[in-house]
Amino acid sequence: MNQPSNHLSFRECTLSDLDTLIQISKDTFIAAFEAENEPEDFREYIESAFSKEQLQKELLNQHSQFFFVFENVDLVGYFKVNKDQAQTDVKDKDSLELERIYVVGHHQGKGIGAWMLQQVIDLAKDNGMDYVWLGVWEHNPGAIRFYQKYGFTKFGTHPYYIGDDQQTDWLLRLML
After folding, report:
1. Count of CA atoms in the C-beta half-sphere (13 A) of 94
2. N or C: which terminus of the chain has fewer CB atoms within 10 Å of its end residue's CB?
């Protein structure tokens, strides 16, 4: 695996980051999933999930945190974690959900995703969590292999909607 070539850092997003968060959220999600989805459902999902109102609501939720990741001064990705009732499925006070983790396209393949995942694991440990869990699309074998490589195991599934299209996410967990 390639190691990040430069210094990586991350910081928590605030409301002043909202416009940048909207843009990186849309750009990375579109790059990752647009080709595999029905265009109308996909457009509807993007407009809803990454709207200013929705992301502002998520930023203001005390149990959710967004983090921007920088390589030197360049924004190269972001991740979102949820605790307690902000979790999309499990809602276990002793777990941390990794809801989103995305690296900007031309920065992929540099080990940044692995570095970000380690930061999430460290956050969970620092907060006394028993495990980290996430949902990953069943038709994303590369992501599934990535998480399994780091010790995540499947413990269930849940539905995930892109517009009206019901898809299935595998629920993966890493015990700490």
Report:
1. 5
2. N
Catalytic residue among 45, 102, 131, 147: 147
3-class DSSP assignment, residue 132: strand
- The three-state DSSP-derived secondary structure of 46-72 is HHHHCCHHHHHHHHHCCCEEEEEEEEC
The share of the chain scoring above pLDDT 70, in percent, equals 97
Please give the structure tokens belonging to residue 99: 């809801």
Number of compact structural domains in the chain: 1
Residue 154 covered by a domain: yes
**How does DSSP classify residue 14?**
-
Q: Three-state DSSP class for 7?
A: coil
What's the CATH code of the domain at 146?
3.40.630.30
Copy the structure tokens of residue 1. Answer: 């695996």
Looking at every residue in the chain, the average pLDDT score rounds to 93
Residue range 81-122, pLDDT digits in tens: 999 999 988 989 999 999 999 999 999 999 999 999 999 999
Strand 95-103 and strand 64-71: the pairing is unpaired
Residue-number span of the structural domain to which 106 is assigned: 8-175
Residue 49 amino acid letter:
A
Q: Is the pLDDT of residue 1 over 80?
A: no
147 is known as an active-site residue: yes
